[in-house]
Amino acid sequence: MLLAQAATEINLNKGLALIGYGLGAIGPGIGVGLIWAAVINGTARQPEARGPLMNIAWTTFVLVEVLALIGLVLFFIASA
Amino acid sequence: MGELVLAEGGEFAPPGAKDFFLPPIFGGVTKPMVLVVLSVIIIAVFFLLATRSFKLVPGKFQFIAESVYDMGRNTIAREQIGGKDFKPFVPLIVTLFTFVLVNNLFGIIPLIQFPTMSHIGFPLAVSVLVVYPVYHFVGFKRHGFVGYLRNQLFPPGVPKPVYVLLAPIEFFSKFIMNPITLAIRVFAAMFAGHLILLVFTLAGEYLLLEAGGLLKPVSLLSFAFAIAMTFLEALIQVIQAYIFALLSASYIGMALASDH
Fold first, then answer.
1. What residues does each domain of chain A span?
2. Tens digit of pLDDT for each residue in B172-200?
3. Exposed, middle or buried: residue A75 (CB in 10 Å: 0-12, 13-18, 19+)?
4. Nearest to B243 among A58, A70, A72 (CB)
């Protein structure tokens, strides 16, 4: 009875939101890593292709990055 | 043990979203509003002064202004929109880049230290009221109403039945999500960056002033991290401004493209 009462009063939202964001950030982390790994590989094989590669890298990087940033916004919404 | 040491002073209150809502300076005018006006003045004065007397051998200011313009014109606009019709958009792209850049950099300039773009309203206004109408307008103007919709919603090289799924997804991403993600990208990066700086400086202050004797030296570490994060933040702010201009140019380029 007492235990149940104590359990209902604890607000777990913040911790859960943080864990959720941590898990959610894994995906974009791997994605961003893959993109730049590909750029490094490409530049090492063909240094003169660096310019076009960087352009493609930035445009794809932002698509992946926004997932982590949306996660951050959702973290603040969920932890309120 | 740790609790005993920590319990000496007041409770440490971690910074949150509430720290971004500063009290108004006067009337309904808040700090971000003043900063936006200030940024416009800074950019206008800088470019007017730097370009007032062009010389063959550029001076320091002319060199900076030329570099910024060159990057906006050649690296961003020409690459993304294409060599044929990028010229009308160069002023817009350069303006977007400098505007977002200066407003972001306010986050690490001493005494100002508040990135305007960390309030979602400002980037949302720039993307929904400026970028979004521009790229759809030029698209509709170039291809006509039906042509533009067909261009945008029915990408070529896909089996016919897939369009049932693909067209709504394309519509959702191009007409609804694009302006929102464009704004969220710069907003969340600035918000998170400013929050990290707040965490390290406030924790350092707390450890130095409130915490017990053993914990006081730890504040040095916290301040050192705050300084390191400031440099990281400078990098991110420039990158975010670059990305904002790059994506705007990319949207315009996609709206104009007629490869099918």
1. 25-80
2. 988 999 999 999 999 999 998 998 899 88
3. buried
4. A58
**Residue B152 reports pLDDT greater than 70:** yes
CA dist B72 and B41 (Å) reads 20
Chain A, 18 to 77: residues with Cβ < 8 Å from chain B are 55, 58-59, 62, 65-66, 69-70, 72-73, 76
- CATH fold of A25-80: F1FO ATP Synthase (1.20.20)
ipTM of the complex: 0.72
Q: What is the pLDDT of residue B9?
A: 55
Residue among B184, B247, B250 whose CB faces A69 most closely: B184
The residue ranges of every structural domain in chain B are 13-256
Beta carbons of A72 and B181 less than 8 Å apart: no
pLDDT at B138: 93
Task: Report the C-alpha gap between B212 and B19 in whole angstroms.
Answer: 26
- B30: phi then psi, degrees, rounded to nearest 5: -110, 170
- For residue B181, which residues of chain A lie inside 8 Å, CB to CB? 66, 70
